[in-house]
Amino acid sequence: MLVFILRRLAQSAVVVVAMSVLVFAGIFAIGNPIDVLISPEADEIERAAAIARLGLDKPMHEQFIRFVDSALGGDLGTSFVHGVPALGLVLQRFPATLELALCAMLVAVVLGIPLGLWAGLKPDSLAGRVIMTGSILGFSLPTFWVGMMLIMAFAVTLGWLPAGGRGETASLLGVQWSFLTADGLAHLILPAVNLALFKLSLVIRLARAGTREVALQDYVKFARAKGLAPARIVGVHILKNIMIPVVTVLGLELGSVIAFSVVTESVFAWPGMGKLLIDSILQLDRPVVIAYLLVTVLLFVVINLIVDLVYSVLDPRIRLGGGRA
Amino acid sequence: MALRDRHRRLADALRSGTLKHTLPAVAALALLAAVPAPARAATLTVGTSAEPSALDPHYHNLGPNTRARKHVFESLVSMDAKMRLQPELAESWRAVDETTWEFKLRKGVTFHDGTEFTAQDFVYTVCRIPNVANSPSSFTVYTKGIAGIEAPDPHTLIIKTGKPYPLLPVELSTFGIISAKAAGGEAVTFDKAGCKADSWPTTQAFNDGSLMIGTGPFKHKSYTKGDRQILERNPDYWGPQPAWDTVVFRPITSDGPRVAALLAGDVDMIESPPVQDIERLKSAPNVSLAQAQSNRVIYLALGVQDTPPTITGTDGKNPLKDPRVRKALSLAVDRDAIVKRIMMGVAEPANQYLPAGFYGNNPEVTVATDANKAKQLLAEAGYPKGFQLTLGTPNDRYINDDKVAQAVAQMFTRIGVQTQVDATTANVFFSKRNKQEYSVFLAGWGADSGEMSSPLKALIATPIKEKGYGTTNYTSYSDPELDGMLDTALATVDDAKREKLLQAAVKRAVDADIIIPLHYEVTVWAMKKGLSYEPRADQYTLAQKVTPAK
Amino acid sequence: MSSVTARAPAVETPFLRLARDFARSRTALAGLAVLVLIVLAALFARWVVPQDPYDLAQLDILDGMMAPGSLGGGGWTYWLGTDDQGRDMLSAIVFGLRTSLLVGVVATLIALAVGVAVGLLAAYAGDRVDGLIMRLVDIQLSFPAILIALILLALLGKGVDKVIVALAAVQWAYYARTIRGSALVERRKEYIEAAQCLALPHRRIMMRHLLPNCLPPLIVVATVQVAHAIALEATLSFLGVGVPVTQPSLGMLIASGYQYMLSGDYWVSLFPGLALLVTIVAINLVGDRLRDVLNPRLNH
Predict the structure, then answer these.
(1) pTM assigned to the model
(2) Is A115 on the interface with C (CB under 8 A)?
(3) A-contacting chains (≥3 CB pairs under 8 Å)
(4) What domains are defined for chain A?
(5) Which of A21, A202, B53, C203 has the fewest CB atoms within 10 Å, i.e. is most exposed?
């Protein structure tokens, strides 16, 4: 087990290095941040001075060596735009995004699995069809469109919920969280629902597909024949067996929810990492983009590790380490 | 929403209740009597279209930063809503001779920490500006004209410039003055080659609030990046008291959601609602609008490079070198149609680089629209069948920028110049443009100084490093005569004479059809009914100027 | 590779039987009919609609923002209104559908092919190969789509093909991850062990035995992903890095329409949205049925 985790970490380190090279070169190729950042009123002299201040006058490989050098010391560089350490900037935004992502996943799982089970057990019933057709809506409409619709319906027309922003926060473990205050929760609902819609549809479909398949398996038929209570069949035999694809995809999706909350955060002015990322990309703020990616890669690796561990719990046939010996 | 509103109302009621109880007892009565006392503890929440990159007033020469700065830090001179100079921390100023200026400072002004404002604070500020670490765009462009500073007494400044420098008062209006004492700079003296100090304040010290000590009408209270900045009224402010006890700035950078936030009552006022929504806002019962012509012109730049980067069908020649072709393209553009259809009427067709009423605008300059004449000119120039052209434009920088570019492409195509639009995000666009990868591009220019020398100097003058000319001239165009006219204008301290010179220069520039003006952007603010705001040409949203209408 | 994935099970089941199974669901048939109509309209767009919205000479800005049913300068009626450039919305939607379908389907096929190959390989080979591939998948998944699109845009320029590459680059990892998950389970099952005992070639085991049994969850994901690819393309347009503005896709039309959502000029955003909805519902009805029909276990 320990060997497994250690090897995973070593592999991940290679990933991180490869990725930082890619991102570094990629952003370098897009353009010069000074072109975006500098005041149009600046003259040539000031332009050259600003380029030098940000260390952009050096050739790319030299900039990269400098970056690696300080990164090894734990310093991922200073944001070109904000003038503060990039990693701090990203971590400061992390709780807001994490909170939003977890709420969205919660919505997706709590609603998605029962609905999917229902649709899978009774595929030809009216409810089953409605659930399936409804789930199509969830992923067919672009997030920004649905987000705006939610704002128009619940904030502008009905006035039930705020249109955006994070609202009041309260401190827990030294971090500010929205879900601890009534005002914060009210602000959390719309963006979480917006972010959850796609995942919800996915969970419904996966759960339904899994259920339909498992329900026809011999052991389920056998359990039925044995006269086990339907609730027990569903709860123990079916649920446990449909969880593998659901866990895989959910694990993936939690990461992607965090990484791709860009749109929801823009629409709802949610001060999270996604918003920071899109702003940083648009301003070619390389240190922040790299810091962001390092944080998300780390997150993905951890999530995938957990997913694999959960696999082995759910299905003892999968042994960790993957060795055939 | 409802819950939140109830909360807010409760809090307001409590506070106003307290206010009434204590009012008779408090000596601040006199102060409150001077201004119409707000009926309740007033909070103004503003949804802004962009967020400052830092609170440090000298970190980044950028619109949103200056907007944030103007609430807490003041400058010697400031600009009114029409961009005319007015006294701020300096009560008066005059040019003693061609290269010497005298500024009389306002007495009895205190910083937020209670210390008095003196000439040393200005000296320290000018010294600190070149010493901001990692500044992506420094304010040194506005201090470079200063050759020497003397302070014969704490409330008089003598500023020397190396050469006649008529723009000095304008440039002094661009940066805010920080407290020398708070930053430990009481002994720092000015030195053109670089001031000496043990250390300079960090940007972080402003972001965390510890150095947010200015003389402005609001005090800094708190700041959460990406979420909100909260300001409190400065009860000791030397000028008129603002109507708000608390001001909250919330960045809502997406247009639609910003409008929605206003309609939903989350915020009291928003910056630049998209032009598409203006009609809807006008018809909303509880919203009022304020709008003003801005100092920003949207233009097309025609490149006269020897080998055109994005023109084909001309055997490698650059047709834009022929003034007739350039004139044809200018004649092809129907500015009224763009303003009416793309800008929904919230813009004004432009015939030069600053609208009427701005310093240096020449009422005799005109541009025309005539597609037939355009075709005829193209034929005369040897391009009866036109040619192919790609028009570069950003798609997230100016109001409806890519839509305007598409409309222009349509109009060019109509006279026979088949035009494609390359619309990219600003980060890609500006890098490509600055490498002269577009034969024709659409961009905008806002004249921070509010006078014609700014666009002329930057957009069309020949790039000359020492003079700071042609910094945004990516057309390869050079007209020595025009440069000479600018030289003379920029060395003329007499305002009336300088304006005449600039008017002559802008006529020559527009007639060259290198920088073709399209329209002037109009800046709009939308707010709850009951608020009023004097719209500003410089586009800043200043909470101290927002008043509850009586 | 992609044709193999689609046909592999058909080798075991005659095509006719598949078609008959498929036709048993009336909703699926209706979905198929709509989809065929949409595809035909998209293919023959030039002859179906009155205007070529990609030809700037046919647009007139003075016809911009006309309400549905207005009579335009060209002599025909704008049944669905016009956008700000004077584009006939009906024509723009049909042309846009073509671009969006192309982008969605091609990107998904490429991603599916790459993802399935890589995922199966990882699960079957296990050990080092698995570790390496899965770490690669991790990198891929932590790369936000917008960053990939922006980098490609900067390096290659703008265009429909770049958007396809970007979308495929974003999505292959999903398939790889998903198929590996199912393949890990299947690999341990008796029939694979049996096949291995028979000393069948690895390739044959992977393609004929492992793949068909891993397909059902994959088809769920793939039908979702065609729709998702189209929606993602819209999002890229929304963020300013989509297809060229003068050749709007359906996603781009929705993204531009988004700016008019509050304004009351409903037709600019509503009709492209509806068109997208109908298309995606049709794709999914067909996809869902296909999945049920293709599933080897449900067939018994």
Answers:
(1) 0.85
(2) no
(3) B, C
(4) 86-314 (1.10.3720.10)
(5) C203
